[in-house]
Amino acid sequence: MDEIQDEIHEECGVFGVYSQENRDVAYTVYYGLYALQHRGQESAGIAVAYADKITYYKGMGLVPEVFSGGNLEKLPEGDIAIGHVRYSTTGASQLLNAQPVVFTGKCGKMALAHNGNLTNTKQLRDEMIAENAVFQTTIDSEVMAVAINSMSDGDILKGVMRACPRFKGSYALVIMTADKLIAVRDPYGIRPLCIGTIVDDYVVASETCALDAVGANFLRDVKPGEIVVIDSQGIHSHMMENLPEKSRMCIFEYVYFARHDSIMDGCSVYEARKEAGRLLAKYYPVEADLVSGVPDSANVAARGYAEESGIPFVEALAKNRYVGRTFIQPDQRQRENSLSVKMNALRANIDGKRLIIIDDSIVRGTTMRKIIKMLRNAGAKEVHIRICSPIIKHPCHLGIDIQTYSQLIGAYKNEDQICQSLGADSVRYLSVDQLVQTCSSANVGFCLGCFNGQYPYPLEGYEADKLKLE
Questions:
Q1: What is the pLDDT, as a whole number, of residue 4?
Q2: Taking a C-beta distance cutoff of 8 angstroms, is the pair 367, 394 a contact?
Q3: Is the pTM of this model over 0.85?
Q4: Given this model, what pLDDT does residue 94 score?
Q5: 297 annotated as ligand-binding
Q6: Any binding-site annotation on 360?
């Protein structure tokens, strides 16, 4: 596959805290971001409100790297703080684009952190530039912040209520002024966002695992299309107008993005992944000596497969815990180079054995191809691949780094052709209906666009790219 040339599209984590008193709120955000590190490993930032001011620090790297050397201690005590972890694709990996976005506007000091991706960023940016707006970054998050500020008339809630209907795409926002913390989820609820409490304080986070990390009790999920305002008067809810009849949460959150100990919109990520493994064993059995998962996100599903099939779960791959996820490296070359130091085959466990290897998805195929070769070189007799999601046939323009058909092995190969390309003995995927079944306890609908091409917002500009492959 070609190296990825797209930019701006991102999958991130956001966190915010509102305290009833001045305290070390930056530390609360720090631990929350640490729990969300899996959602973004390229940059991190924290902004703190105190004495009608906002100060911040952000940098490139992992959370503990960015806030080492006394950088966290330099942030003052305050009563409100927000934070962000980010990953980007090629071209956008730079400090300039790290979040939160912080500036002074009609509402005074303001900071915004965003998880998601807008599809009409260029249109909005061009319209605001025509009205003399000035932009310092290349990210859609700044476009959102400028739009909210320009439409606020000094009232941040009014700005959010007026601007959000203009945003097309996915967004989970935490917004901070000198006296308010605001959480916003797009009308389709594509990206997750939840609320928790620590005694009288409120916490907002992308996942419940971050609430657990700071000792917060889960209160509820932010509803699709909801604007939650937290201030000295308590917590207030406002709903956007003309909401769609059905929400469209990204089902990939359950497949891969979220930490397995999180609960999203009423559904346990752990249980969803385990059920995926059970369904793979039920519908796509194969004779084998052991079943194993590609660490770490597929291990839960592999145990589900083992329980359903009666085939023992045995570790086939050892993971280097100090190497980041290959899926969220900024370019293809870094993804491929990192795999050789990321994991290794356990020869003692697999030599002469027939293996079933469970993975959450196959995007480009390069990683799985190398894994299969690694297992065969370590003596595996057979390698059967079982995937906890359907074939990814279409790009995502709502926050995942697959923006073109040319990046997707499933865009131009069927199951048998993929099997041959990977060098596996067999490859089987869950169907779309089976994947939805794994999340049956969720109280939202799902976006399945990368599997079936049906998106909540139109996908434009990709058909020509697909035709080149045919």
A1: 33
A2: no
A3: yes
A4: 74
A5: yes
A6: yes
Distance CA 194, CA 218 (A): 8
Q: Is 12 designated active site?
A: yes
Task: Tell me: is residue 201 an annotated ligand-binding position.
Answer: no
Mean per-residue pLDDT over the chain, rounded: 90
pLDDT at 416 over 90: yes
> Which pLDDT score, from 0 to 100, does residue 336 have?
52
450 in a labelled binding site: yes
**Which residues have CB under 8 Å from 102's CB, separation 6+?**
47, 54, 56, 109, 110, 111
Q: How far is CA 37 from CA 33, 43, 55, 70, in A?
A: 6, 10, 22, 20
User: Please, is 270 exposed, middle or buried when counting C-beta atoms within 10 Å of its C-beta (0-12, 13-18, 19+)?
Assistant: middle
The answer on whether 79 is annotated among ligand-binding residues is no
Rg of the chain (C-alpha set): 22
Give pLDDT tens digits for 77-95: 999 999 999 976 433 567 8
What is the band of 364 on the pLDDT scale with cuts at 50, 70, 90?
confident
For 6, half-sphere exposure in the C-beta direction (CA atoms, 13 angstrom radius) is 21
Q: How far, rounded to the nearest angstrom, does the alpha carbon of residue 440 sit from its chain's CA centroid?
A: 21
Whether residue 312 is predicted with pLDDT greater than 90 in this model: the reply is yes
Q: Which strands sit side by side in the sheet containing 108-118, from one edge to the other?
A: 101-105, 108-118, 169-177, 181-185, 226-231, 234-239
